[in-house]
Each structure stands twice: as C-alpha cells, then as structure tokens.
Amino acid sequence: MRIRTILLTMVGAMIIAGTSWAGAIKVNGSTTVLPIGQAAAEAFMKENPNISVSISGGGSGNGIKAIVDGSTDIAMSSRFIKDKEIAMAVEKNRYPVPFAVAYDCIVPVVHPSNPVSNLTLDQLKGLYMGTVKNWKEVGGPDKQVVVISRDTSSGTYEVWEEKVMKKERVFAGALLQASNGAVAQAVAKNPFAIGYVGYGYLNKDLKALTVNSVVGSPDTTLDGTFPISRALFMFTNGWPEGDAAKFINFVLNPNKGQKLVKEQGFVPLF
Questions:
Q1: Phi and psi dihedrals of 140, rounded to 5?
Q2: Using an 8 Å Cβ cutoff, are 255 and 47 in contact?
Q3: How far is residue 184 CA from its own chain's centroid?
Q4: What is the pLDDT of residues 106-159, one digit of tens each?
Q5: In contact, 253 and 240? CB cutoff 8 Å
Q6: Is 31 left (phi over 0), alpha (psi -120 to 50) or beta?
Q7: Where are the beta strands (DSSP E) in 117-215?
C-alpha cells in the first residue's frame, strides 16, 4: 500500500512538473480574425509541440475585454482599440499593445439569385437604416429586403457603423448574427437577404456586391480604393514575452503566419 502511494505521488509530481514546463497561450476575440488564429495555432503547435494554443471567438469587444481583465494572453480584434478601452486597461495597470496581422475588406453579400450587383455607400446606409425597404428601390425585384447585421460586440459591426452608417445606428428591424459565418449562412439561405462579411468568408453560396462600382479584393484593399477596408489586429498586454512573443512572431513571419493569412482568404502584410 505504501509503495503504491509513493508511486502515485511520483506520477503526480511528474504530471505537475510536465505541466509547468509546457507553455499554454489563450487567444480570444474577433470571429473575423478567428480563421487566421486557428490556422496559425495549428501550424505553430506543430513547430512547438510543447506549447498549446487555445483559440476562441466571441467578437472583438469581448477579446479586448479579456485582455483588459487578464483572462486571455492575446486578443484578436477586427478594429482598433477604443479610447475608453485603453482607459479601462490603464486603470488595471494593463497596457494593450497592437500588432496588425492582416488587412481585410468588408463585402456586402446577397443570395446568388439576386440580380443586384452594385450598391453605393448611400444605398447601403439606406438599407441598414431601414429607409430603403424594397429591393426594387435599388434595382432589384419587388420584394421586401431582409437586412442582416452583426451584433454590437462585433468589430466588423463597428467598422460598418463607421464607414457605411457614418455613426447612424442600424435600424431595429435588422436581424443580428453573432459571427461572420452565421451571416454568411443566413444570406445563403434567403434570396432576399443582404448581409456583410469579411473578405475571407466569401464563398460560392454568396454573391459579393461591388460598392461604388469598386470590387472588394486584395488589391483594392491595399490601395484603399475599396471604401470598407480595414486592418486586423492581435493585442497583447504590454510588449509580449515568452510563448506569446513566439506566437506573435510566428503570425508576422512572411514565410509562416503571413502565408496562412493569404491561404485563409485575407490580405497579408507583406
């Protein structure tokens, strides 16, 4: 019995020692940045099998909140941090450091059967304010428009609000979705719906609209001609060290993480 107790104690000590040697990184936030984070984490762990990376979505606001309250090591965000979030972080002696990891554009999407192929920024604003209610008002069928938007914790929503809505609120009749993937699925199933997704979420079940006759693409994102373009970020608490620094460096490496950025359909930095 005594020998068994000693053996169990030794095994327990080995497990504890193993756990203390292995690294663990928590990454949380934007569902737009999520595919980049997931692909990078998978490749990073193959290169660093002693470090585990856990990734979860939930929106940019929740990711930045997590870096402020210390419950994550890295926050993913599809927008820059707000002044009030910086103030909240500083009050807790936390100093979020931004790293741009990719570029992206937010593309309005409709069902492939919809004949509309282009909308102006003013038309998009009218649709999302609820002042344009029927597709025939913008060159489409005589059918009521089903407006699909992201919820307010989304960085994509906040960029949309800034660049399309010009600080006007999305009308209360819009159907809110919690992720890019949910918006894509909802639009793909409804012939009269309109939504908006990050460039990396475009697929054959969606029809991407041009905006002001400009196609959303890597080229128009980089040269700034597509009017709903943005940078995507990862934030750390202070300058990253240890495993978090290794992961950020991996994501920014032109031959590693930035290749994955392109593979996921986003625009790499280099």
A1: -110, -165
A2: no
A3: 14
A4: 999 999 999 999 999 999 999 999 999 999 999 999 999 999 999 888 889 999
A5: no
A6: alpha
A7: 118-119, 146-150, 175-177, 193-198, 207-208, 210-211
Tokens (6 digits) for 42: 């998978």
Report which residue type is found at 196: Y
| Residues recorded for the chain | 270
Structure tokens given for 41 = 């984490």
Contact 141, 229 (CB under 8 A): no
Q: Which pTM was predicted?
A: 0.81
Q: How far apart are CA 210 and CA 205, in angstroms?
A: 16
Rounded to the nearest 5°, which phi and psi values hold at 79? -145, 165
List pLDDT tens digits, range 204-255: 999 999 999 999 999 999 998 999 999 999 999 999 999 999 999 999 999 9
